[in-house]
Design a protein that fits this description.
Elements: H1 4-20, E1 23-33, E2 36-45, H2 55-72, E3 79-84, H3 95-100, E4 105-110, E5 115-116, E6 119-120, E7 123-132, E8 135-140, E9 154-157, E10 161-166
Parallel strand pairs: 2-3
Antiparallel strand pairs: 1-2, 4-7, 4-10, 5-6, 7-8, 8-9
Helix pairs in contact: 1-2
Keywords: Cytoplasm, Ribosome biogenesis
Function: Required for maturation of 30S ribosomal subunits.
Protein name: Ribosome maturation factor RimP
């Protein structure tokens, strides 16, 4: 297990490289793996960006992070470096996470008594379209198909969300773009 001081030394070496690339250091974990140390660096796009980090950028930043760690030597002995993005499995816990999830399909668990889409159900399912002033806007989605549907968006205070996760979607067809629909 890494000490807070060794974690800070690694952060001091890594964070400027990540920031210079226009990215955010989302997480840093240092752990033992036999005689080696594993340094896991999680990077992400800035909170105002929509989309995901491309592999070329991830690879370039990974090389630069490795070079910075080699130059600063904050990790004694041999280490393995793993640089990745948060991925869809990261729970949404901070306002920045919700902002990064704009345009994504999400499942929310809500504080008791909070209404979403006119129903007090304890949960909500939809697409995040905006996050401002501590509230997110969720557009309706058909739970059975995952397709966007026409309807009135709902607004939910981030403080009313007890847990949230991005749902993996293989396709994203906006409402009215169903090729099987007849005109």
């Amino acid at each position: 297990m890494a000490t807070p001081a060794s974690t800070q030394r690694v952060r001091t070496a890594v964070e400027p490289v990540v920031t210079a690339a226009g990215l955010v250091l989302d997480g840093l974990e240092i752990s033992a793996a036999g005689r080696r140390t594993v340094v896991r660096v999680t990077i992400d796009l800035a909170e105002d960006a929509v989309g995901s980090l491309d592999l070329d950028t991830l690879a370039a930043v990974s090389r630069e992070v490795g070079a910075a760690l080699d130059a600063a030597s904050p990790v004694p002995g041999e280490y393995t470096l793993e640089v990745s993005t948060p991925g869809t499995s990261r729970p949404l816990t901070e306002p920045r996470h919700f902002k990064r999830a704009r345009t994504r399909l999400v499942r929310l668990n809500l504080r008791e008594g909070v209404a979403a889409f006119g129903h007090v159900s304890g949960s909500a399912f939809g697409r995040i379209t905006d996050v401002t002033d501590g509230r997110l806007t969720l557009s309706p989605v058909d739970a059975a198909t995952g397709r966007d549907v026409t309807g009135v968006p709902t607004h939910i205070a981030l403080a009313d969300i007890t847990s949230a996760a991005v749902e993996v979607e293989l396709t994203h067809a906006p409402a009215g773009d169903d090729p099987d629909e007849e005109s």
